[in-house]
Amino acid sequence: MRQHKLALCKEHYLEWIPAQTERFIEKYRMFTHEERVLVAVSGGKDSLSLWDILWQLGYQADGLYIGLGIDEDIGYSSESQRLTEKFAAEYRLKLHVVDVKKEYGKSIPELAQGTNRGRGKPCSVCGLVKRHVMNRIARDLGYDVLATGHNLDDEAAVLFGNTLTWSGEYLLRQAPVLAETSGLARKVKPLCRFYEREMTAYALLRGIEYIYEECPFAIGSTSIYYKELLNKLENDRPGAKLTFYLSFLEARKSGLFASQENIQAELHPCPNCGQPTSAPGLCSFCRMMTKKLTAESAETAEKK
Amino acid sequence: MVKIILRDKEYEVRPGMTLLAALKKINILPESVIATREAEMIVEDDILKDGDVIRLVAVISGGSENRYSRFVTKHKPRFSNIG
Questions:
Q1: Taking CB atoms and an 8 Å cut-off, how many pairs form between chains A and B?
Q2: Interface test with A, best of B38, B59, B81, B82 (most A CBs within 10 A)
Q3: Could you tell me which CATH number the domain at A14-257 has?
Q4: Which of A23, A62, A134, B48 could disulfide-link B2, Cβ–Cβ 3.0 to 4.6 Å?
């Protein structure tokens, strides 16, 4: 780990990652041992490792798997669900499964068809549905906090993208902890200071079986492109990604941006689902579902 | 020779060089992979021996709950010049 000027053997590495995670949880006041944590688990290396670490640290962490119905030629969703359920069974952990198609009548690729979001790629619809479901389950089942497995490379890539266009609104919302507000569960990212490479090493050394294949729709995505660019920078300047992200957090803390409270004050509850939305009226998720239903009704009437 | 495998691609390098040198030779960023030999992780300073089969695990995954600005999601960058 050139960025830390640190070399560890397997045994100490497997101790170091959970110890550091606990330090970040405490440093950013993410949650306590008394609180119930819902971990969003995708079957990938980061989320399964996060669940594993929280379990080792003795937190009350249950899992949430969202079945997206992305199978294409490789059975991506079914395989990631199988691996997640296998992990939960092995550790005897509680896992909630929400199947998007069963719940909303359509899979993610089907929902994405005909919407303007993403223009043929379902990633935008996928993100919207996942955010909605994660928040709904966390609220409905009384969890104190929702934890995701975002690592430093994820965070640095998003920061890079939003800095390129100075998207102030998005920059303001990027933090290791997004505080709970009316209708919105607290969101935390305990792995936000670990490199993606460090998390891969952890999963491999711990023997965690994760889905190695990439989501077929993520191939060629902007996030991967930015990660590759940042890795080139990291290669020449070890520690550059960490410095980029930590300097941003420091700038936020010292008041470079408006406070999070000012942003939250502008949120309105969606009249349909109750989740907060930035503009009065239906939230993006309910707007998308309403449009879909209206289009389908019109199509059925036309056929008759 | 040393065989290096990354997903469905195979490369060959001469034995005697370090993993770091081999990765540079085949134009793979060390930051983007983890290398294993006989299912054991190896580090950048390790010398590759004749007959070694090195399997590289790609570390980058895509998809993120965080949002980019609308500009970025609508205007995809070009990928043709990325090595």
A1: 112
A2: B59
A3: 3.40.50.620
A4: B48
Question: Tell me: the pLDDT tens digits for A116-125?
Answer: 766 667 888 8
Contact list in A for residue B43 (CB cut-off 8 A) is 7
> In 3D, which of A85, A83, A81 has the Cα closest to residue A93?
A85
Written as one letter, the residue type at A114 is G
For every residue of A217-242, DSSP letters joined together read: TTTT-HHHHHHHHHHHHHHHSTTHHH
* Interchain pair A215, B63: CB under 8 A: yes
Tell me which CATH code domain B1-83 carries. Answer: 3.10.20.30
Cβ contacts (< 8 Å) between B59 and chain A: which residues? Answer: 196-197, 199-200
Domain residue ranges in chain B: 1-83
pTM recorded for the entire structure: 0.88
Return the SS3 of A12.
helix
What is the tens place of the pLDDT at every residue in B6-56? 988 999 999 999 999 999 999 999 999 999 999 899 999 999 999 999 999
> Is A201 in contact with B41 (Cβ distance < 8 A)?
yes
Q: How far is B81 from chain A (nearest CA, A)?
A: 11
Ranges assigned E (strand) in chain A: 36-40, 60-67, 95-99, 145-147, 177-178, 186-188, 268-269, 276-277
